[in-house]
C-alpha cells in the first residue's frame, strides 16, 4: 500500500494511508498462524483416532487462506494481471472438493508462508514524505501597520513585507530589501552560500545563514518554489511505471502447462484425483517462496553493507539498472568546501602559519568556509590560538585579534576594506571554476589568499570504473550548479554526459529521457533531487548528510556518507536476482518431473504435497546462499 499525499495551501500535506501501511503484513501473519495451527490440531486428532474431526479442522484452517486468495485474484483480474495465485487456488479448491483436506491444508501453509515473506520484504516500500513537509515553514513574520505579527503561510499575499530571521527557511518566493546570505544547497546543489544584493530574487526553501533581512513576497506560499517541488515529487511518483515482480513473468506459461497436464491426466484416466495430484505438486512454491527468500536475504545483505532498500521489487529492479544519473553536490562531491589553494605574499610566511592564523580567527564563525579552514588546520595538527575582539559581518568575513595581531579573514572585497590590497598577490592567483577565494590580512596588509572548492570524493574514478565493470553502460552527471563548475568537477572522470544549471524539472526530464532506453538509477541528496529520485526506476539517496526529503522519496538510502557503497549494493541485487532465477529453474524443473509422475498415478495428493515440500526446502536453502 502506498501513502498518497495531497498538498494543501501553504505547502502542507494530508496523508491518505497513515497507519494502514502494515495491515497486509499483519493479515498474512494471521493466515499463516491459522493454517499452521490447523495442521497441528488435525494431526493431533489423527493421533487420537478422530479422523472426522481432523478433516474438518484441516478444511476450516484452509478456508481463510482460500478466501483471502480469491479476493486477491479478483483484484488482480480487475487490473488485468494473471498471477500464480490461480494455481494455488485451484489446488486448494480441488483438494477440498474431493475430500483431500490434509493436502489442501499443506498447500494453504505453503501459500500463506510465501505471502508472509513477500509482504515482509515490501512493507517498508510505502513511506510518506514527513521530513520534507516538516521543513516547510508553517508561519512567517509579517510587518504590518500594527508592527510585526506571526501569521500562517496561507495569509501571505504578494506585496507583503516578511522578516526572515537568521537560521530560518525563506517561507515564500520574493525580493530581498537588503543584503542577505542564503544557503541554496538543498534546492539547487550550490555547495557554498550565496550573497543576494538588495532587490535580488530569493526562493522559498533556502536557508538564511546570514543576518536577519526583510523581503517582499512575490508569490503566495502555494505558488512558491518549495511547494512546487513537493507537488512535483508526487507527480513523478504517480507517473513512475509499476515494477513487475520476477515471479509473475512465469505465471501465464506455468498456469497453462499445469491446467493442461492436470486436465489431460483426469481426461485420459477418468480419475479426478490424478488431476488433483498434478495441481498439488504444481503449486508454484518455488516461485512463491524462493524468490521472496532470495530477495529478503538480499535486503539483509544490503543493509549490512549500509544500504537500505525499501522493498523486494526495488532490489529486483536494481539488478537490471544500466544507466546511473549522479547529482554533484553532496553525492559526487562531499557537499562541503575543501582547501585547494594557498598563496602567501612572501617566503617569510609559510602556508601553515597563514592557515593557522586564519583558522584561529575563524573558530568564532559558523560560515562553511570558516569551518573548512578550521577543519583543514586541525587535519594538519596546527595549534590554534583563541581569538579576541571578534566582529563578524555575516556572509562577508570577520576581524579580530589573534596573539595580539589584528587579523581579518573573508572575501577579497571585505578584507580590502580593512587592509591594504596586495595587487601582486591577487594577480598571481588564477582560480578555476567553482573555486571561492578568501583573503587573509595581518596588521592591515593582505598576506595570503585561500582557494576553496567542493571536490569529488576520494576514490570516485575507481568507483566509476568499477560500476562500468559491473555492467553500467552509461553514467551521467546532473547538477544544479553552473555548467562550468560541473565540467570542472567532471574533468578527468569517465562521464558520458555532464549537465549543469539544472532545476528539479530539468533533472526529471533527464531521468525520463534516459529511461526510454534502459532502466535508470538516480543518486542524489538534496531537496532539488527528490522529484528525480521519485521519477527514476530506482532512486538512491545519500541519507547520512542529505536532505530528509530525498531519503523519504528515494527507493534506496545509503546510510553512511560513502558513495562507494553503491557498488556492493548493485552487486548484491544482481546476485540475489541470479540466485532467485536459479532457484526458480531448479524448483520448476523438479515440480515438472513431479507433475508427470503424479499424472501417471504414482503420487497421491498428500504425497504430492510432501514432495512439493521437499522441493520447497531445496529451493529455499539455495535461495539462502544470498546471505553468504
Word description of this protein:
The structure is a single chain. By secondary structure, this protein is α+β, with helices and mostly antiparallel strands. The chain has four domains: 227 residues, no CATH class; 97 residues, Calcium-transporting ATPase, cytoplasmic transduction domain A, CATH 2.70.150; 128 residues, Rossmann fold, CATH 3.40.50; 116 residues, Calcium-transporting ATPase, cytoplasmic domain N (3-Layer(aba) Sandwich), CATH 3.40.1110. 49% of the residues lie in helices and 18% in strands. It is built from 23 helices and 24 strands. It has a seven-stranded mixed β-sheet. It has a six-stranded antiparallel β-sheet with strand order 4-3-5-11-6-9, with no helix packed on it. Strands 14-19-18-17-16-15 form a six-stranded antiparallel β-sheet, sandwiched between helices. Helix 10 packs antiparallel against helix 22 and helix 10 packs parallel to helix 23.
Number of helices: 23
The overall number of domains is: 4
Q: What Rg do the Cα atoms give?
A: 32 Å
Beta strands, count? 24
- Average pLDDT metric: 79
Shape: elongated
Beta-strand residue percentage: 15-25%
- Main beta-sheet annotation: 7 strands, mixed
The CA-CA distance between the termini, in Å, is 31 Å
Note poorly predicted spans.
Answer: 1-23, 121-133, 239-244
The helix-and-strand class reads alpha+beta
Helix amount, in percent?
40-55%
Identify the strand order in the major beta sheet: 12-24-23-22-13-20-21
Amino acid at each position: 500500500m502506498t501513502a498518497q499525499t495531497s498538498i494543501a495551501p501553504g505547502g502542507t500535506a494530508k496523508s491518505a494511508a497513515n497507519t494502514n501501511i502494515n495491515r497486509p503484513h499483519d493479515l498474512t501473519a494471521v493466515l499463516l498462524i491459522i493454517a499452521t495451527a490447523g495442521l497441528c490440531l488435525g494431526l493431533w486428532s489423527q493421533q487420537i483416532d478422530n479422523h472426522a474431526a481432523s478433516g474438518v479442522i484441516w478444511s476450516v484452517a484452509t478456508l481463510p487462506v482460500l478466501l483471502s486468495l480469491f479476493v486477491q485474484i479478483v483484484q488482480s483480474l480487475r487490473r488485468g494481471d494473471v498471477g500464480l495465485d490461480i494455481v494455488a487456488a485451484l489446488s486448494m479448491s480441488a483438494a477440498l472438493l474431493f475430500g483431500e483436506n490434509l493436502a489442501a491444508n499443506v498447500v494453504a501453509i505453503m501459500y500463506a508462508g510465501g505471502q508472509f515473506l513477500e509482504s515482509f520484504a515490501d512493507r517498508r516500500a510505502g513511506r510518506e514524505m514527513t521530513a520534507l513537509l516538516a521543513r516547510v515553514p508553517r508561519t512567517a513574520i509579517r510587518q504590518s501597520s500594527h508592527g510585526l505579527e506571526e501569521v500562517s503561510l496561507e495569509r501571505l499575499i504578494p506585496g507583503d513585507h516578511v522578516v526572515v530571521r537568521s537560521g530560518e527557511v525563506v517561507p515564500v518566493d520574493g525580493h530581498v530589501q537588503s543584503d542577505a546570505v542564503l544557503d541554496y544547497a538543498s534546492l539547487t546543489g550550490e555547495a557554498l552560500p550565496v550573497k543576494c544584493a538588495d532587490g535580488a530574487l530569493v526562493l522559498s526553501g533556502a536557508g538564511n545563514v546570514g543576518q536577519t533581512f526583510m523581503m517582499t513576497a512575490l508569490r503566495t506560499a502555494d505558488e512558491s518554489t518549495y511547494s512546487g517541488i513537493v507537488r512535483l515529487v508526487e507527480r513523478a511518483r504517480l507517473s513512475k511505471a509499476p515494477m513487475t515482480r520476477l515471479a509473475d513473468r512465469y505465471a501465464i506459461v506455468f498456469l497453462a502447462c499445469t491446467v493442461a497436464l492436470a486436465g489431460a491426466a483426469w481426461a485420459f484416466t477418468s480419475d479426478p484425483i490424478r488431476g488433483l495430484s498434478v495441481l498439488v505438486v504444481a503449486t508454484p512454491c518455488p516461485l512463491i517462496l524462493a524468490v521472496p527468500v532470495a530477495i529478503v536475504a538480499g535486503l539483509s545483505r544490503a543493509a549490512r553493507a549500509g544500504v537500505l532498500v525499501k522493498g523486494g521489487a526495488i532490489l529486483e529492479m536494481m539488478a537490471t539498472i544500466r544507466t546511473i544519473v549522479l547529482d554533484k553536490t553532496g553525492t559526487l562531491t562531499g557537499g562541503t568546501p575543501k582547501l585547494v589553494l594557498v598563496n602567501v605574499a612572501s617566503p617569510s610566511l609559510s602556508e601553515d602559519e597563514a592557515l593557522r592564523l586564519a583558522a584561529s580567527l575563524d573558530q568564532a564563525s559558523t560560515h562553511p568556509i570558516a569551518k573548512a579552514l578550521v577543519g583543514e588546520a586541525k587535519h594538519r595538527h596546527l595549534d590554534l590560538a583563541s581569538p579576541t575582539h571578534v566582529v563578524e559581518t555575516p556572509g562577508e568575513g570577520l576581524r579580530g585579534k589573534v596573539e595580539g595581531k589584528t587579523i581579518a579573514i573573508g572575501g577579497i572585497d571585505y578584507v580590502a576594506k580593512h587592509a591594504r590590497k596586495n595587487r601582486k598577490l591577487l594577480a598571481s592567483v588564477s582560480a578555476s571554476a567553482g573555486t571561492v577565494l578568501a583573503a587573509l590580512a595581518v596588521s592591515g596588509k593582505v598576506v595570503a589568499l585561500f582557494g576553496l572548492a567542493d571536490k569529488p570524493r576520494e576514490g570516485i574514478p575507481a568507483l566509476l570504473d568499477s560500476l562500468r565493470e559491473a555492467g553500467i553502460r552509461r553514467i551521467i552527471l546532473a547538477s544544479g550548479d553552473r555548467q562550468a563548475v560541473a565540467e570542472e568537477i567532471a574533468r578527468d572522470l569517465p562521464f558520458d554526459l555532464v549537465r549543469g544549471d539544472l532545476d528539479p524539472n530539468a533533472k526529471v526530464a533527464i531521468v525520463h529521457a534516459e529511461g526510454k532506453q534502459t532502466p535508470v538509477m538516480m543518486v542524489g541528496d538534496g531537496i532539488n533531487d527528490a522529484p528525480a529520485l521519485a521519477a527514476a526506476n530506482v532512486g538512491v539517496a545519500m541519507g547520512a548528510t542529505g536532505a530528509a526529503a530525498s531519503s523519504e522519496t528515494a527507493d534506496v538510502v545509503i546510510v553512511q556518507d560513502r558513495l562507494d557503497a553503491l557498488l556492493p549494493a548493485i552487486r548484491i541485487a544482481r546476485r540475489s536476482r541470479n540466485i532467485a532465477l536459479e532457484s526458480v529453474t531448479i524448483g520448476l524443473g523438479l515440480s515438472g518431473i513431479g507433475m508427470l509422475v503424479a499424472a501417471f498415478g504414482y503420487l497421491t495428493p498428500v504425497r504430492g504435497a510432501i514432495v512439493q515440500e521437499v522441493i520447497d526446502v531445496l529451493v529455499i536453502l539455495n535461495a539462502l546462499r544470498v546471505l553468504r
